[in-house]
Write a structure and sequence with these properties.
Layout lengths: L1 H27 L38 E10 L4 E12 L4 E14 L4 E17 L2 E16 L4 E19 L7 E9 L21 E7 L1
């Protein structure tokens, strides 16, 4: 009887041990289900979304590419010799608007008429392109002019201001700093008031309120 009970205990112990070993083997050879899953990248909501290289472009044009240099000049020979030099510098403020400044020197000489006058000054201007070949222009020019004082029998000088409005026919040139040539016609709004205080004669350096220029800028 005791022998039978001992055999039963050994049999039960062997069965329990065999079950644990088989269970461990099954767990070892079990397929890892996480191998086929892709690793998840950490999400950082603080970073901006990625942009294509073609979209990453600066809208700011460098100043060196917006500078305009040029001016206008004139030579006239005949009864009166007329020399006009007007260097100009501008900056492209927007795609269609240019602002700038300029200096002016004019010399009128006629031995026959007894004329030997010089004029100098400066101006500031705005040019706005409404069409590829049409440009509007507003300008204010200050000129130091010479006039005759009959009371003292001598020449005197004074400053006169000229607000000018007009337009230009524009042709592109394609230069680095001189982009176009402008055939400009302006009207001097103050022409009738630019008078000699003693004689009442007009002392503007221009012969009429209309001012025509060919400008490279």
């Amino acid at each position: 009887m005791k022998r039978n009970i001992l055999l039963l205990i050994v049999f039960l112990a062997f069965g329990v041990t065999t079950g644990e070993v088989l269970a461990q083997n099954d767990e070892y050879y079990k397929v890892d289900s996480t191998r086929n899953e892709r690793p998840r990248r950490p999400t950082d909501t603080s970073l901006p979304p990625a942009r294509d290289n073609d979209q990453v472009q600066s809208d700011v044009v460098p100043i060196s590419e917006r500078i305009r240099l040029g001016g206008s000049f004139g030579l006239g020979f005949g009864t009166v010799t007329n020399i006009n030099l007007s260097p100009m510098a501008g900056l492209q403020l927007t795609e269609k608007l240019i602002g700038g400044v300029g200096a002016t020197y004019m010399w009128l000489y006629s031995r026959r008429l007894g004329v030997n006058n010089s004029y100098y000054g400066g101006r500031t201007f705005l040019m706005y392109s409404i069409l590829p070949m049409v440009t509007l222009q507003a300008e204010y020019e200050g000129m130091n002019v010479q006039y005759y004082n009959p009371a003292e029998r001598r020449n005197q000088r004074m400053w006169i201001g000229s607000p000018l409005l007009g337009g230009a026919y524009t042709q592109p040139l394609g230069g680095r700093y001189t982009k176009a040539v402008h055939m400009t016609l302006l009207y001097n709004l103050n022409y009738q008031n630019q008078l000699n205080p003693y004689t009442g004669r007009n002392i503007s350096p221009y012969n009429s309120p209309f001012v025509f220029r060919i400008t490279f800028l």
